[in-house]
Amino acid sequence: MDAILGAIGGSEIRSIVDVGCGTWRFLQALSDAFSCEIVGIDRSLPMLREAQRDAGDRMRLVCCDAERIPLRDGAFDLAFISMA
Known about the structure:
Layout: H1 2-8, E1 15-19, H2 27-33, E2 37-42, H3 45-52, E3 59-63, E4 78-81
Parallel strand pairs: 1-2, 1-4, 2-3
């Protein structure tokens, strides 16, 4: 998270999309670093079901392929992709 915070400088982050979120391995770190809406997308429904256990009020999950994300362009301030 230090690298992300350093790269964005003082930019205000109001929304994050976690592409290929899986079981949301980075959920807690993103939540701790940013107080904003977080949307996790993954094509694996079983992984999203597991992620749902840790999803808080500011978090939602979308089942889709990363090549066809059903979200409008520019909807997020930050895209987080790790190990996808």
